[in-house]
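Hello forum,

I keep getting stuck at the same step: I have a sequence, I want structure tokens, and every attempt I make locally crashes halfway through. Rather than fight my setup again tonight, could one of you with a working pipeline run this one for me? It's a single chain of 656 residues.
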Amino acid sequence: MIGIILVMIPVGIFGKQHILLDSTKEQMLDWTKYPHGPDSPTPGWVEESFTNFDKGINWRSYVVCDVSYPNVNNWLWTPFIERKDANRIHIDIKFSIRSCDLFPGKALQCKETFSLLFYEFDAATREPPPWQPESYKLVDRIAADEGRFKNNNEVIINSESRSIEVNKKGIYLAFRDQGACISLLAIKVYYITCPEIVNNFAVFPETPTGKSESSTEKIRGICVNNADPTDVAPYSYCKSDGTWLSSQGGCQCIAGHEPTSHGVGDEGCQQCPVGKYKPSKGDSPCQLCPDQSSAVHTGSLYCSCNHGFYRAPADPTSAPCTSPPTAPRNLTLALFDAHSLTLAWQPPTEEGGRADTVYRVECTNCGPEVNFSPNTDTIPTTFVRVQGLRSLSNYKFRIYAENGVSKVARESPKFAEITVNTEVTDMRSVPALFIKNVKSSSIHLGWRPPHDQYIDIEMYEVRYFVRGQHTENTTLTTRNEEIEITGLSEKTDYGFQVRAKTSQKWGEFTPPVYQMTGATEPEVYPLPDKAGTPAIVGAVVAGLVLLMIVTVMVTLYMKRGSDDWTKKQGGDSDTLEFRGVSPHYSTDNGNGIVHTHTGGNIPLFNTFATHKTYIDPHTYEDPHQAVRQFAKELDPRYITIEAIIGGGEFGDVCRG
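Reply #2:
Ran it on my machine without issues. Output:
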């Protein structure tokens, strides 16, 4: 949503009056009047001069004082007043009225007011306008608000202002007297405009006020020269008193121009001077050109780079101009053998005022087998590794220094150059590399030392990589002639190389040996040693024998218990049920008998009660009979308790 910008109009700017009629500026008025001539019933309006030398007043005016006549009806018309651009006309009247008290007994009719009327017309005519009252529009009946003089030695001047809406080409004003003693000293007719102003770099033209006394006219502003509107177009409001209410929106100086102001209402946009620029529109001033640039013309949107300096395509116009870097310094051969080398250098002496210097490596006679590390078009480092060279060959390398403006610069990039002769194959290299063991995530390597037995091997360097990804390799070092490489991916083909390092230099890598890792081995639990086998076998046999014994004993016991378990010798035993404290027992009724159920019986064995059956084997003549009798649980459906009749040593005594 676009915001509305309100800008207050500076104070001190008032409405401007445009005079249409001013009787004080005329040497002779000669207005039309009625009645007139020798046959007039009254003298009517008379033109004369009103002077006040102390105040510098010498005005032509009209007076009338027909208070001694009956039926007075005196009219006075102004000339035709063309309205021009007016929507509303203002009328200022200066007059004096004598008090009727000055005419005691002499005035047939005396009034202290007069009427102001107007007649609107589309063209001026030589004929006077009609004098009938119905043809005119009454503006107001005017009285002397400031006072009436009561003697001939004093003059009280009254001032009144009225305004009327006009729509036709012009108007006639009429003053009608009906029996007053009046002097029309000065008549001024004008319209008001809101003056032309410049606010927020927008010009609001001179504008006539509206037709009504309370109306405001919305006026669209026009941007000053070399300015464009903002997101909100400029407009303001002209009030009826000729003042501007407020401004909304505005304009901004276009690119290459800055605001200028020489006071209130005097705003503009002027071109940027030589040596300054402004890239976009706005209220900001012009800026000095950045380093190594200049503006040779006024109104510049940007500053051109000086000779030998440039801007990158991504650089803003506010960025200084820069230059390409000088050549790299001290290009040297850091490491070198028959098939590889490392080049190193130092940054340029001058980087052109930029911090984005990179390097480009060029080899004039390198074949496709030669590869570089880092393997990119440009590198930020000051060294490069070259591999895959042929022995006993010449190679020429160029290291270019470039930055962000090298591609737009007119001159070619600066470079450093070096020529390298590769050596013969080192006869003291590792003669053979072989695989000793393969697992899913590791491979065990071994190799034979160089044939030259008179050299001292400081260490070996092992390099491995996934087949086809020679540049993405990993290196390990060891002093042994074997190594186990762990952390490998399952079922992946790897290449392995090894080289030896003497006190002088590194030897050559062996040709790659490729080997695929195995799959994941199944999980195998270790077997116990032979000493523990007899103990395990013995434990298993003992367990089986014990299980058989328990099975036989249970079978015999169950068979004995099932023989005639329901046969019991009469009077051989007393069975007691021990429950502890019974919840049904009470001595409150004196006899200690508690009926446990009304109108029925309850089972002897309650599966929810916490009681056990107690058997005394001494009450049986044959103890084996007691065991056979009570070895099985009695069926509770056939035993019930009617009441608790007492307590014994081992439990309650029940009847049932």
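The first helix runs from residue 533 to 561. If your local run keeps crashing, start a new thread with the error log.
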